[in-house]
Amino acid sequence: MRIKFWGVRGSIPVPGNTTIRYGGNTSCVQVLPSDDTILIIDAGTGIRKLGKELMQGVCGRGGGDIHLLISHTHWDHIQGLPFFAPSYRESNRLTVYARGREDCHLDVVLKSATTDPYFPIPLDAVQAEVSFRELTEGESFDIGVCQVQCTRLNHPWIALGYRIQEGDKAVMYVSDTAPFSDVLLEHDFISEPPKPGDRPTPDQAEKLQQMEEDLVALCRGCDIIVFDTMFTEPEYRQRPHWGHSAPVHAIDIARRAGVGRLVLFHHAPNRTDEQVDEILAEARSLAPDLEIIAATEMAELEV
Ligand SMILES: [Zn+2]
Ligand SMILES: [Zn+2]
After folding, report:
1. What are the structural domains of the chain?
2. Distance 35 CA to ligand 2 centre (A)
3. Which of 246, 226, 99, 101 is nearest to 181 (CA)?
4. How confident is the model over 219-255, as pLDDT tens digits?
5. The overall pTM is greater than 0.90
6. 197 pLDDT above the threshold of 90
7. In angstroms, what is the span from residue 8 Cα to ligand 1's centroid?
8. Residue 155 has pLDDT above 90, yes or no
9. How far are the Cα atoms of 179, 184, 219 from residue 170, in angstroms, in the given order?
10. Comparing C-alpha atoms, which of 116, 115, 52, 122 is closest to residue 89?
11. In angstroms, rounded to a whole number, what is the distance separating the alpha carbons of residues 152 and 184?
């Protein structure tokens, strides 16, 4: 099994001469199992180029069967979807998976993004057959030869982490999430960070602990973890309510789960290539016991 990074950035695409090496497109990762299953995680702007490549193969002839796992529907994880070429080819099938929410179905959420006046072609009008599967936290299911499991992450309006396993190889995708210590992020808009000394209530602390235990359990036995490390630790301390981690938090989860390879992912949009280099070097010095990589657009890793 291999994974390929098509977009590694958080929040907003940032093309330009300061992001050339790591890349400026938003979140999109392809998992390539040993068979021809087409499995994609997140549809940030990186999915546009992936779509072009898929059109060179079976998706260009119609008959492509694409599975797209969405961590959550914030813009940086879906904004490439209207530009995904296989959607516009008859006889392709696209199945979109994401956590179901009580107040609004997944198809309504995604269709709203391409409704007039936001985009000229409604998702309903694309030629491919598009279907939606709403997931519950902790669910497992198969996609081709892969087993997929999901768990809840600590992010505003809730995100899902995904574990993809084929045989004895497994990869875990954890984006976006805050650590599980300071703020429980659910469906409330939290505009200010907690004041110094503020702690989660016992109820919130219990939920956070459970979420963290479930995540560590799902990471256990994986070969690689791809983790949202948008923040440095000082940045996290200023904005714990934004729902993102620093490398130190990812290292902690990787160690507790016994996973030896960690990929820093969802780089902050204002981060230059040199700054990502520095963050990577610092993470490596903090955790010489782990193999740490910074996600790079178009790079492939053997799992
Ligand atoms: Zn994000
Ligand atoms: Zn998000």
Report:
1. 2-302 (3.60.15.10)
2. 31
3. 246
4. 999 999 999 999 999 999 999 999 999 999 999 999 9
5. yes
6. no
7. 10
8. yes
9. 22, 28, 9
10. 52
11. 12
Q: Which ligand is nearest to the CA of 242?
A: 2
Which ligand is closest to the CA of 77, given by its number?
1
Q: Which ligand is nearest to the CA of 156?
A: 2
Do the Cβ atoms of 169 and 1 come closer than 8 Å? yes
Beta carbons of 221 and 170 less than 8 angstroms apart: yes
**Can you read off the two tokens belonging to residue 287?**
């955790």
Q: What's the number of CA atoms in the CB half-sphere (13 Å) around residue 99?
A: 22
CA dihedral (140, 143, 148, 154) positive or negative: negative
Contacts of 183 (CB under 8 A, 6+ apart): 154, 190, 193, 194, 200, 240, 241
- Report, in this order, helix, strand and coil percent for the chain, each rounded to 5: 30, 25, 45
| Alpha carbons 173 and 195: distance in angstroms, whole number | 31
- The ligand with the least distance to the CA atom of 10 is 1
C-alpha 74 to ligand 1 mean position (Å): 6
The ligand whose atoms approach the alpha carbon of 42 most closely is: 1
Centre of ligand 1 to C-alpha 233, Å, is 18
Cα of 5 vs centre of ligand 1, distance in Å, is: 15
What strand order describes the sheet that includes 261-265?
Answer: 140-143, 146-153, 159-166, 169-174, 224-228, 261-265, 291-294
* pLDDT in the model for residue 8: 98
Identify the nearest ligand to the CA of 12 by its number.
1
Residue 210 banded pLDDT, cuts 50, 70, 90: very high
Express each pLDDT in 275-292 by its tens digit.
Answer: 999 999 999 999 999 999
